[in-house]
Amino acid sequence: MTDLSVRTGGQAGDGIASVGETIARCFSRMGLHVFGLNAYQSVIRGGHVWYQARTGTGRPRCQGDGLDVLYALDKQTVDVHAPGLRQGGTVVFDPEKFAVSPSELPAGVTALPVPTLEFARKHTSQSILQNAGGIGATAFLAGIPLDLLHQVLADSFGRKAGDVVAWNLAASGDGYHFAETHASVNAHAVQKAGAPKLLMTGNQAIALGAAAAGCKFLAQYPMTPASGVLHWLAAHAQTLGIVVKQAEDEIAAINMAIGASFGGVRAMTATSGGGFSLMVEAMGLAGMTETPLVVVESQRAGPSTGLPTKTEQGDLNMMLGAGQGEFPRAVLAPTDAAEAFHMTIRAFELAEAYQTPVLVASDLHLSESHFTVDREEVPLTYTPASLLNVAPNGHDYLRYQYTESGVSPRAAPGQPGLQFIAGSDEHDEKGHLISDVRSGIPKWVTERSRMMEKRMRKRHGLLTDAQPPVVEGPSDAPLTFVAWGSTVGAVRDAMAVLAAQGKSTNLLYFPTVFPLDADRVTSTLRATHRTLLVEANFTGQFGHLLRAETGVHLSERLLKYDGEPFYPHEIVARGLEVLNHGGQ
Amino acid sequence: MADSSARVVPTPTGAPLPLVGKSDTKPTWCPGCGDFGVVAAIEMAVKRLQIPSHNVVIVSGIGCSSNLPHFLSSYGFHGLHGRALPVAEGIRWANHGLTVIGTGGDGDGFGIGCGHFVHAMRRNVDLTYVTMDNQIYGLTTGQASPTSSMGQKTKSTPTGVIEQPVDPVALALASGATYVARGFSGDVKQLADLVAGGIQHKGFAFVDVFSPCVTYNKINTFDFFRQRVYKLESAGHDPTNRALEFERSLEWGDKIPIGLFYKADRPTYEDLEEVLSAGPLVHQKAGIEGRTDVLDEFV
C-alpha cells in the first residue's frame, strides 16, 4: 500500500493553504483518497503555517506520520519539518530565498533547489506568482500529471484575469519540467486511480448536510473553527434558498434559530466552545419550549480563548451539561466528512422528532481538515418530511399535551385555531404558566412533575433512535481502542499500522456520545480484553461519562491536550505498551 | 404591512377568522399596574387592523411586563430575559407573513437585551417593539433599572443611582429605527394609535411606554407623568427630521413629550434579504434533493 505525504510550509499570507489545497485537489481528481491538514496560527501575516496533503492507494484517515515531499517557502519550514522526511524524501525550495545544506537533512533526503522566483519574473515583477514554480516541482515529485495540475490551477483561478492564469500555468510548467530534469519522482508517487472524488472540509460537510436536511435558516457569529459552516451556507444561501444571518453575538444567534424553528422552519446555529458558553441559557429555552434546534459545536483548545486555531475535545462535559435544570438532548459526534454530512441530517431528524436541542460535536481537526468522499457517500436523495404534525383547525389544541412518548403535537404561528404560548417558564399542557400564581399549589405541584416527566420521556425515544456504539475490527482482539469524534481517524490509521505488525486490535467508537444505552455499552465494554481510551482532553471526559453510565473505569488512557491532532505513531506506541504490559 | 386587510384569512364559510382578544388567562400584575393599559392598547390596535389572531405572534423576554403574551389570544413566545428581539427576528424571517410584536420591560430591553435592541433597529426588521418602561426592576422586587433616574434610591442603590439613565427614544433614533414613539399607559387611546401605527409601519417600530410600577417606583408614578406629558401631535410636530427628533427626545423635566417622534421609509431587512423575495421561508421548498450540481464544486 502506497502512502504519500506532501507538506507545504511558510508564513501566513504566503498562500500556503492554497498551495496545499491545490495539491490535495490534484490527488482527489486522480481518484485518490486524501486527508488534508491545515495547520495554522492565530495570525493573518507572518508566523509559521503548513498544510499537509496525505494520499495513497488506501484511505488516509488522518495526517499520518510520514513525510515525502516538503515544499518550503521559508527557512523555518526546513528547520521544523525536514527532520520528519522519510528516506527518499525531497525538500523543494528556492535558493534565491535561502540555502539548504545537505547536513541539515536526514540521511536519504534530497534538496531540490528550484528557481521559482526566476520563473515568476519571466511574467511579472509581482510576488503573486512565486508559488507556481514550487507547486509544479512538488507536483512532479508526487506523481501528479502536469495537465491535471494545470486543470486544477485554471479552475481555481477561473474568476481572475486571464493573464494571471496563463502566467501560473507557464510558471508551474517551468517548475514541473525543472524537477523532471533535476530529480526523479518520489518512490511513493501516486497514479490516477479512478473517477474524481469530492474534496471537502468537515465544516463543508456539515453545511451540506444541513442543506440536505432541509435547514432553511442559519444564524451564527463568526468563531474559529466553526466559521466554515457560516461561510459555505452564506455562499450558497441564494441558490439553495436558505436565510443565513450573521448575528450580533452567539446569544442572538441561538435565539434567532429558536425563533425561526418556532416559526416553522428547520434552523441551526454553529459555534465553538466560547460561543457555546454564551448559548447555554438558550439551550434550556429550546428544551423547555420544546423547539427543535440543531447546534454545531466545533471545539478548539480551551479554556477561555485558549488556542483558537488548535484542536481539542475538551467541551464534552459542557455539551452534556449546558443549561440549568434538566431536559432531553443528544450529542452526535461524526468522525469524518461523510459522517458529518449524515449526522447533521440525523441531528435535524432527532431534533424534530423529539422537539429538543441536538448537538453535532465537531472539533477543529474535523471541521477544518480536508477529506475525500465519493459521490455515493453524500447522496442528495433525502426528502425532508413535513414539519408540523398537527392539522389546522384542531379543537382544544394542547401544544404540550401529555403523551406516552413525551412528544406533543406541534403547530406553528399562522395556523388558524392553534394559538398557544411557548413559555420558558414551567407551563401546563396549553402552555400557560404554572410558575407564578399557581406555583406551590398542590394541583400545580403535581402538574409540574407531570410536565417534567413528559419532557424527560422523550429520552427513551432519543435513546432508541440514537446510533449505537460501533465495534470495528475483530471482535476478540486483545486490545480495544475506545474513542469518539475526529480522534477516531488517527485510531483507525494506528490500527492499520498495528495490523501490519501482526497485532490485532479493534475499535469501539460512539457516533452518538449521548445518550448512551448503559446496558448495551456495559456489556460491550465487559466483553473487551484490554482497553485504551483515546481522547483529546486532559481529564478523559468521555471516560468519565462511560464510568458514570456503566460503572466501568477505563484506566488505560492516552490523553492529549497540546492542541495538536493525534498522530498514529502515538497511538501505536501507547497501544503496544498496553498490549505488552497489561492494563485492564 | 400596508394592506392589513390582506391578512384576514377567510374560513371555509367565508367568515373572517377570530381576531385577537383576551385569553383565558387573567393578568397577574399588581392592581393598578401600568401594564394593563398596554395590553389593552395592543388588543385595540390589532383588532382595529383586523389581523386574525393566528397571524399575530407576541414575543417577550422575562419580567412583569413580559408575561403579556399570555393574556391575549394570539400566538406567543415567552422567552429568556433580554432575548425577545432575536427570537422575534427569527420568527419574522421564518414567516414574514406574520405580524410580530415584541413586548418587554426596560431592564429586559435596555439592560440585558440592549445589544439586541440596537442591532434589530439598524436592521430595520419589520416588527413592532413595545416596552413597558417603569424605570425599575419589578419582578425581582425593586432594584435600579437602566432607565432609573439619577439619585433614585432602590434596593440595589440605597444611596441613590449614580449612573445616567438610558434614553430609549434617543437610542432608537441613533440606532436606525424607522418608527419611534413614546406612549403613556395612562392614555390607552393614544397608545393604541401609536401601536397600530407601528404595526402598519414597514420597518422596525419602537414604542416606549411610560408604564408606572405602582409597587416599587414611588417617583415615576401615574401622577408624575400626568403632570408632565404633552402630545407631540398637538404641538404641531413634524416627525420626519431625525436631527430635530433627537433634540426633542432629550426633552425631560417639567414637560415630557409623548407621541410619534420619528417615521421614515427605509427598506426592511426582509425587503433586502433576497431569499425572502420567493415568499415566506416557511412556505418555500426545503432540502436540496437532486441538486447534484452542488456536489460538482467539490471536485
In short:
Chain A has 584 residues and is α/β, with parallel strands linked by helices. Chain A is built from 18 helices and 21 strands.
Instruction: Please state roughly what percent of the residues of chain B sit in beta strands, choosing from under 5%, 5-15%, 15-25%, 25-35%, 35-45% or over 45%.
Output: 15-25%
Runs of chain B in which pLDDT lies below 50 for 5 or more consecutive residues are 1-12
CATH topology of chain B: Rossmann fold
Biggest sheet details of chain B? 8 strands, mixed
Q: In DSSP terms, counting alpha (H) and pi (I) runs of 4 or more, how many helices of chain B? A: 10
In percent, how helical is the residue content of chain A? 25-40%
CATH fourth-tier homologous superfamily of the largest domain in chain A? Pyruvate-ferredoxin oxidoreductase, PFOR, domain III
| SS-based class of chain A | alpha/beta
Global outline of chain B? globular
Residue runs with pLDDT of under 50 for 5 or more positions of chain A: none
CATH superfamily of chain B: Thiamin diphosphate (ThDP)-binding fold, Pyr/PP domains
Q: Could you tell me how far the N terminus lies from the C terminus of chain A, measured between alpha carbons in angstroms?
A: 33 Å
CATH architecture of the largest domain in chain A: 3-Layer(aba) Sandwich
Radius of gyration of chain A: 26 Å
CATH architecture of chain B: 3-Layer(aba) Sandwich
